[in-house]
Amino acid sequence: MATLLLLLFLLALLFSFQNISFARDTISSTQFLKYGDTIVSSGGIFEMGFFSPINSQNIYIGIWYKHIPIRTVVWVANRDTPLTNTSSVALQIISSAQLALVDSNGADIWHTNASRLVPNPVAKLLDSGNLVVTDANDDNPENFLWQSFDHPTDTHLPGMKLGRDFIAGLDTTISAWKSENNPGTGDYKLSVVPAGYPQLILTKGRKEESRWGPWNGLHWGGLAGMQKKTATAEMFVIVNTKEVSFSYTVSNSSTLIRTVLSNDGSVEIYRWADGRREWNSLRKVPTDVCDEYGLCGAYGSCNYNNNPVCGCLDKFLSRDPGAWGRADYSGGCVRRTPLKCQNTSSDGFVKYSGIKLPDTQFSWFNSSMNLQECEKVCFNNCSCMAYSSLDISNGQNGCLLWFTDLVDIKVLPVDGQDLYIRMASSDLDYPSSSKGKKSKMIKLTSSILAGILLGLSLSSTLVIILYKRKRKEVHLNLQWEEDQTLFEVSTITRATHNFSLNNKIGEGGYGPVYKGVLDVGKEIAVKRLSKTSKQGLGEFKNEVNSIARLQHRNLVKLLGWCIQAEEKMLIYEYMPNKSLDSYIFDNRRRALLDWPKRFNIINGIARGLLYLHQDSRLKIIHRDLKASNILLDFDMNPKISDFGLARSIELNEIGANTNRVAGTIGYMSPEYAGHGLFSIKSDVYSFGVMVLEIVSGKRNRGFSQHQDHYENLLGHAWKLYRDSRLVELIDEHLDEPCDFPQILRSIHIGLLCVQHCPEDRPTMFSIVQMLANNVELPIAKEPGFFTESTVRIEADPSSSKEISCSIVTISLPR
Questions:
Q1: Which of 146, 456, 500, 649 has the most neighbouring CB atoms within 10 Å?
Q2: Domain limits at 494?
């Protein structure tokens, strides 16, 4: 018996030294990590183990997100010492309280540096993605022996500080991978440079590539629109005698955000979109050519809207006026009138607004001065070339002085700052005669602007006159709201990278749709009228005027428009999850939509339609409701879009008729497609089609059941309803029996909406009530069968004029 107990004890002791459990988040001194094993942070967010990049035979120790389908590596231990054979290597705690990657011979492949010895050292993976070496009984971050956050690779995670710790003598920077499949230390590095006043700078080797500008209390000066605090994250910058650092946190621990420096030298901020199961890009730097460091030389100013982009600041002259068009020219500019440093009273300062402040590596700063004191200090020092406020988060506070030529100035359309540059007295003021003329002009302009502003209300009409061939004028009366913008073509071109194919996210009857990012960092969707489109000014005007005054959480928001020469563009809020059809008709992505998400989409569409039909300032009939015109926001909430065919009617009317039928096969009601009669019940019909498509995951048009003659989804659904077999219509991915009663009820409501006679269909008010309450539903009658691939237009019996097929416009669903 004693022998048996001893044997069991030895087996247990041997087992304790074997590879660690997948569920653990630590490696102790009696455990080690072998190839194939992993540790997982306590909250299940991050995982660490061995991995190989795509198309690579090399093996590394790394950390990645646990539950993201495509492995996203955020840190690599042995990035410059890859493994080719893992049969005899392990990651373990060694006697000196170091975490080391060693082989069977004890050779050290990679290791940490312990700052001191502790009794019980462990390596622990935290939910922040930070791998720490600490004493097992001490969770105080101040006492960590070592942490991966001090030695990042290409990813900046929330809670990680970039910068310099003067006490520990530690510089923390992120550096790119050498290539997409080689995590070795690449050429590009992003760091907080503490010289002068600290700023974020991207370098390639020793060359400065791009500069984010100094911190101004609200954001990095060169990153317009990137605010210190948003609903998602908050940034922190510390500048004192102990450290200079930059970090950020997220407001919700479930929000996954990372900043990555790629091997091409771009820095991109990503947020995980759980609904789409992919990373959504929030911001990318450099944004344009003007982010190239020192592109225009000393006292040169870079403006992306100009051609060439480089020019001189006002009252400066180019060193070589004919060279600005050369791509490699950075000779810069000189003052029109040289300074006379022998007599500071002959100098003064000229204010330049709306710019990214120049390089601050050779600057001086004081946080306690005000702007007037700052000017005085600079004025009394002949070597001081310019001054500005240090902190603009609450007025103009602090003092920032430059003592060398001003380099890397960029014009910013928003969030630019004021810079006061030293100039000779002759360049400070206008001559008296011109000053008088300018004063009169300012007064006149001010009076005109005051009159215009006085006449504007919250909703106004903008009259645009377009000049066509033979001097024909076309007038557009566009309704607009105070929060909408008339965009310049250059702004939209820049936002979409010149309408790059990589930015194209869809195309409809109006034309292509592009994703764009404005200079302030806001994502937009740009709907651009195609030259080959059958739609034109009428649809453009109709869409603007239909949606401009509509505000509802289930309607896509119109941010503004752009109309210049042949360009006619509509600018909307960007919907990161694109359109409903991209989910419900895709077998892989459809699996991401459980029933609560689908029911929320159905309810949202219903509430949006109720607003259009009943609760808005206008009574709107959409006329082109379909799955591709339902957009999904970040949280998968639906928003109705594309109002190019919408019609407004009087509040006491329910419909109208038209000789020009326009819509999409499979979604048009029979009375509209056949006779041009449209009403709020036409939209109800389209809504019913979408309900059946959402539940079944099948398209109405083109649906076919080979065993019978029903050629569309509506007919098939009604037959199952008639035979009490509706459960057969439910998408195979909706396999929770507890959801079936609500699913079957939704199908019933959908069938009520697609009944052949408009009078039998419920209103959207009734539908919202049906969805919200368990009221008894009427028996559904036969739906309007619509199975042909083409549309036959019959004459309206109330009209003696036959409706010609040539005036029918029908778009096929994407």
A1: 146
A2: 459-573
